[in-house]
């Protein structure tokens, strides 16, 4: 896959706007804050050194953990989820903070930053998907007790996470033509079609949709994580733990409460809720485990590369709005679209043949240095150097050996910043330096053509479905590896340490 491409991921980041945010950032009521305070005995023991954890060289203090624990308690109470006792809540909150810190450090290492324009676009998309204005969105957020600045900080974190996912994981997922052929054959040539990108859709002569939307599935989970490299005895121990949690749930315990107290999933403090997605947005393992379950029913214990899962079906059927419908924070690339009715007949689309030179941002190569480097290369191109020669020598994209050639690009196939700059060029022209989440680009348009894309879109849709099924497990695997490579000293829960010195 070409790294400049946006990998359309249906597993969108979900951010409720009425009352809480995705990381539990809400203004705690005074009574909830008092209830969440540790006892005097706990305080005297815990604040001997004031350190809750060390992540590489970053310290997380007990004061920070207790502040987040108060906010998490308030969120759980708003959602009417049983609140774990303080010590358990602390451990759950700290695990989440450690994961967020590992992700933050990796994003910083890769030079990933969220620009003001990206943050503003994220807010606009959240508002659009809730069918309200940005002003109304802000009113609803502040009405719930969340300062707008806090909400924006959380939204930036979510966008940064998505950029990190695209940069580190999405480009590693390769769907072969043989896999597409096999998938299409298994579907009898018919499949729920992903809606074309907006630009392509405007050009395509497609029949109107015959249904209100794709079938969707909402899930929650309890995860018992299995650290990488665990011996068989430890795996069996963790399986027994998962089976004990399942027995509690089937015995009448509140699923969300058990998740909040015991799940190793980042969504534990949201009651384990994973969101509502089109069916094609879930991993095959989850679909198989829940295919015969009705809303409210719970699966058995299922095993993946990350550990043991217990799944609960929250909703199943056609999408519906209404009270409590979550807003979605957008990926910085094209907004993911759920499957729609299959387009019929010719789909005439204008394609662009382009090439580029990519300089990636990092701690060593700042945005300023990358832009300067490309300006120097652009000057050399104007002085007569060949584009393909400079691309082979300087570009950091996988297309470099081909002189930066990206082939024929269909609207919606690249991230918006790249596509907009490319569309503004005439054949033969070279762009100014263009920034995307992948780094800085010089783009040259070689030629354009109009083509019937009916067959290509069907294959593209199949590719998206296969990609979506692999993206989530791949990201979890990558995140586990990232944590395993980090130095983590969790002083509230030493047994959870998986660090490597």
Q: What's the overall average pLDDT, rounded?
A: 79
**Termini separation (Å)?**
34 Å
Count of structural domains: 3
CATH-derived architecture of the largest domain:
Orthogonal Bundle
Q: Rounded to an integer, what's the Rg over CA atoms?
A: 24 Å
The share of residues in extended strands comes to 15-25%
Shape: globular
CATH 4th-level superfamily of the largest domain: Porin chaperone SurA, peptide-binding domain
Fraction in helix: 40-55%
Quickly name the level 1 CATH class of the largest domain. Answer: Mainly Alpha
Helix/strand structural class = alpha+beta
Main sheet attributes: strand count, strand direction, barrel closure: 4 strands, antiparallel
Total of DSSP H or I helical runs spanning 4+ residues: 16
Strand tally: 15
Strand order of the largest sheet: 6-5-8-7
Low-confidence stretches: 1-48, 193-212, 320-343
Output the CATH topology of the largest domain.
Answer: Triger factor/SurA peptide-binding fold
Region (Disordered): 189-209, 317-344
Keywords: Chaperone, Isomerase, Periplasm, Repeat, Rotamase, Signal
Enzyme class: isomerase
Protein name: Chaperone SurA
Explain this structure.
This protein has helices spanning 30-36, 40-46, 62-78, 86-109, 116-129, 134-143, 148-168, 177-186, 198-203, 232-250, 255-262, 284-290, 367-382, 387-394, 416-423, 454-485; strands spanning 13-15, 51-55, 58-61, 193-194, 216-225, 273-278, 298-304, 307-317, 327-329, 339-340, 348-359, 405-409, 434-436, 439-452, 488-490. The longest helix has 32 residues, at 454-485. Helix 3 (62-78) crosses helix 4, helix 4 crosses helix 7 (148-168) and helix 8 crosses helix 16. With 501 residues, the protein is α+β, with helices and mostly antiparallel strands. A 4-stranded antiparallel beta sheet has the order 6-5-8-7, with helices on both faces. A 4-stranded antiparallel beta sheet has the order 12-11-14-13, with helices on both faces. Strands 3-2-15 form a 3-stranded antiparallel beta sheet. The protein is 43% helix and 18% strand. The chain has 3 domains: 13-172, Porin chaperone SurA, peptide-binding domain (Triger factor/SurA peptide-binding fold, Orthogonal Bundle), CATH 1.10.4030; 214-318, Chitinase A, domain 3, CATH 3.10.50.40; 348-452, Roll (Chitinase A, domain 3), CATH 3.10.50. Strand 7 (298-304) and strand 8 (307-317) form a beta hairpin. It contains 16 helices and 15 strands. The chain starts with 12 loop residues before the first strand and ends in an 11-residue tail after the last strand.
């Amino acid at each position: 896959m070409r790294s400049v491409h946006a990998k359309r991921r249906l597993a969108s980041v979900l951010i409720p706007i009425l009352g809480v945010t995705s990381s539990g950032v809400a203004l705690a009521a005074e009574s909830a804050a008092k209830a969440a305070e540790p006892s005097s005995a706990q305080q005297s023991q815990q604040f001997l050194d004031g350190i809750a954890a060390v992540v590489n060289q970053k310290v997380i203090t007990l004061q920070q953990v207790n502040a987040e624990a108060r906010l998490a308690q308030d969120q759980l109470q708003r959602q009417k989820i049983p609140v774990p006792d303080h010590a358990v809540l602390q451990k759950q909150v700290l695990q989440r903070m450690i994961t967020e810190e590992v992700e933050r450090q990796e994003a910083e290492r890769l030079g990933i930053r969220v620009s003001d324009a990206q943050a503003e676009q994220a807010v606009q998309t959240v508002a659009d998907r809730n069918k309200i204005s940005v002003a109304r969105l802000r009113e609803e957020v502040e009405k719930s007790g969340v300062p707008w600045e806090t909400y924006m900080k959380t939204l930036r974190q979510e966008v940064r996470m998505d950029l990190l996912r695209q940069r580190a994981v999405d480009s590693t997922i390769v769907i072969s033509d043989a896999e597409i052929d096999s998938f299409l054959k298994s579907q009898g040539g018919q499949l729920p079609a992903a809606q074309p990108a907006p630009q392509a859709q405007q050009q395509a002569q497609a029949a109107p949709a015959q249904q209100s939307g794709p079938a969707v599935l909402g899930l929650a989970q309890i995860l018992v994580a299995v650290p990488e490299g665990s011996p068989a005895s430890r795996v069996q121990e963790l399986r027994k733990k998962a089976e004990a949690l399942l027995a509690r749930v089937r015995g009448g315990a509140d699923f969300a409460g058990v998740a909040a107290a015991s799940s190793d999933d980042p969504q534990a403090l949201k009651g384990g809720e994973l969101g509502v997605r089109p069916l094609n947005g879930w991993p095959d393992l989850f679909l198989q485990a829940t295919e015969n379950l009705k809303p409210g029913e719970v699966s058995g214990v299922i095993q993946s590369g990350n550990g043991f899962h217990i799944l609960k079906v929250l909703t199943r059927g056609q999408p519906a709005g209404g009270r409590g419908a979550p807003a979605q924070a957008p990926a910085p690339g094209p907004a993911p679209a759920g499957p729609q009715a299959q387009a019929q007949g010719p789909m005439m689309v204008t394609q662009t043949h382009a090439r580029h030179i990519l300089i990636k941002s990092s701690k060593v190569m700042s945005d300023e240095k990358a832009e300067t480097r490309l300006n120097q290369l652009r000057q050399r191109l104007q002085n007569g150097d060949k584009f393909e020669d400079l691309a082979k020598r300087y570009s950091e994209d996988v297309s470099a050996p081909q002189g930066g050639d990206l082939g024929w690009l269909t609207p919606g196939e690249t991230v918006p910043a790249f596509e907009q700059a490319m569309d503004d060029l005439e054949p033969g022209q070279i762009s100014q330096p263009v920034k995307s989440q992948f780094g800085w680009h010089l783009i040259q348009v070689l030629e354009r053509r109009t083509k019937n894309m009916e067959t290509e879109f069907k294959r593209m849709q199949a590719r998206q479905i296969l990609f979506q099924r692999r993206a989530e497990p791949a990201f979890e695997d990558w995140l586990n590896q990232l944590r395993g490579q980090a130095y983590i000293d969790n002083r509230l829960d030493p047994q959870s340490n998986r660090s490597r010195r």
